[in-house]
Amino acid sequence: MSEEKPRTSHLVEDLSVLSRRGALSGAEQQAFADALESSATLSTAHQLGCDFDQIANVKPGDDALIADVAARVLARRAAGARAGQFRFRALLLVAALISAGSAAAWWQRGRATSAHSVPPPAGSRLTSPARTPATAPAPATSTPPAPEQVPPPAGGAPSSRASSGRTVSEPAATRPTETGPNVFASAEALFREASAARRAGDRAGARALYLRLEREFPASDEAHLAHVSLGNLLLDMGRAREAEQQFASYLGGRPALAQEALIGRAQSLAALGQTDEERRVWTELLHDYPGSVYAARAKQRLAQLAPPAASSK
Amino acid sequence: LRGIAQSAARGDRVAHRTLLVETGAPLLRTVRAVLGVGHPEVEDVFQEAMMAVHQALPGFRGECSTLHFVCRIAVQTAMNARRRGRTRTRYLAAIDETELVELARDEVSPAELLAAARRRAGLRRLLGELPEPQAEVLALHTMLGYTVEETAQVTGVPPNTVRSRLRTALKALREVVLLDGARLEIVREES
Fold first, then answer.
1. Measured between alpha carbons, how far is A242 from A235 in angstroms, rounded to an integer?
2. Where does residue A147 fall: left (phi above 0), alpha (psi -120 to 50 degrees), or beta otherwise?
3. B54 interfaces chain A, CB cutoff of 8 Å
């Protein structure tokens, strides 16, 4: 019935865009060819558009980079929120100190005034009035330890964290701090260190740090992301079986990086020679994320893999 | 993505991460397109763009698709990075060698590859020289392949204004490419 759908845009400028998307009808293709012929500017613009389309591909390692940067942005955001809370508490503390100081001064003045009229009893100490109000800031001085009252990571179930939508980095990332060169106070610091080691090419060091992160801060966002980063790292190191386990762990939790984890898993299975399982994972990726930026890659790989014997009719 | 963006704007941390991850690849592509694949600051600018997305999210009213909204922010962030105190790179139409290596294929001759790389370098340089509104429209249309209507939606200006800006920018682009070609001819003759 409607072979040629009417387009909302027939502008000459858009013919180039539609051509790049492979969305020109036969008539439009002819019109576009004519337009290119008659306009050098349009021709240049179209050529450049195609030049840029060539570089619009996902590169290996992009998934880990995206995960790293997203974690950094979220961590900075959480740090900003914590700084805001700290500033608020600091203001409260200052306000409490000022009030206490004023109260002390007022009390002292009152005592001094009354001292003129009523002589102090023998043996009374001048310091005692000043000490009494000093107890006023006591509740305020107990405020700073409050952040440490945040419950330590208990290794709770990831799903409950996800469903609650709570800010998870703060409690999970905070630990009773110790001093020492190899002690990390937070999951964030450990994740950053591990990522830096990975980028610097220190695979063994990065692996150890990621594993430590998973062990010491199992409930943190960073530990969850580490499954993907570590999976990719292990895959690069040729440890496909361990890599596959990391991706599977990630997919069993909150799948924000599900596409990347599925790709990593498929690659691990390819390295292990488990073709049927690999095909199933690529198919799953295409099925669950048909508009994925990795869809072309999935199709390409599926085309390379021989069709399963069971499905050949 | 719209639902995720709305939840993220309301402060849902999981939605926020999902949005960053889901739009990460197009964001990164956009930054690379504007800066060049081998530009040393790609990662920093990419992070800046993600931060900018986070900051701009509460103001997003759904005038355009979430992806276009996010990519526009990446274009602006990357263009700002090019403009901000980087006069040296502005005046050097440096060929991105990483791109050359990555795009090398059997069916494309080295001369064609080089010509395409020079054109891309010319456009990137032009983004730093054109008035910002024209540069933005040029980047969205030519680099990211947005139609006039899509560009109008994402920038919030009428389609006719977009066309007018685009026409001026494309004319400048044509001149850059012509000039570059002429320079190349001279170099060839001299050698």
1. 8
2. alpha
3. yes
Contact A262, A280 (CB under 8 A): no
Structure tokens at A29: 């293709």
Total H helices, total E strands in chain A: 15, 0
- Contact map slice: B 98-117 vs A, CB within 8 A: 99, 102-103, 116
Q: Which two tokens stand for residue A102?
A: 């004023």
Contacts of A44 in chain B (CB under 8 A): 170, 173-174, 177
Q: Are B67 and B26 in contact (CB under 8 A)?
A: yes
Give per-residue pLDDT as tens, A248-284: 887 775 455 777 788 888 989 999 999 999 999 999 8
Name the residue with higher pLDDT: A251 or A181: A251
- The tokens describing A89, both together, are 């508490």
Give dist(CA B143, CA A223) in Å, integer: 37
Cβ neighbours of residue A3 under 8 Å, at least 6 residues apart? none
Mean pLDDT, rounded, for A36-44: 85
- Shortest alpha-carbon distance between residue B87 and chain A (Å): 23
What pTM was computed for the model?
A: 0.52
User: Among A56, A58, A64, A59, which Cα is nearest to A260's?
Assistant: A64
Residues A7, A15 contacting (CB under 8 angstroms)? no
The CB-based long-range contact list for B100-104 (8 Å cut-off, 24+ gap) reads: B102/A55, B102/A59, B102/B37, B103/A54, B103/A55
In this structure, of A97-101, A308-312, B31-35, the range with the lowest mean pLDDT score is A308-312
List % helix, strand, coil for chain B (3-state, nearest 5).
80, 0, 20
Kindly report the average pLDDT of chain A as a whole number: 67
**Interface contact B26-A62, CB threshold 8 A:** no
Amino acid identity of residue A108, one-letter, is: Q
Count CB-CB contacts under 10 A for residue A170: 18
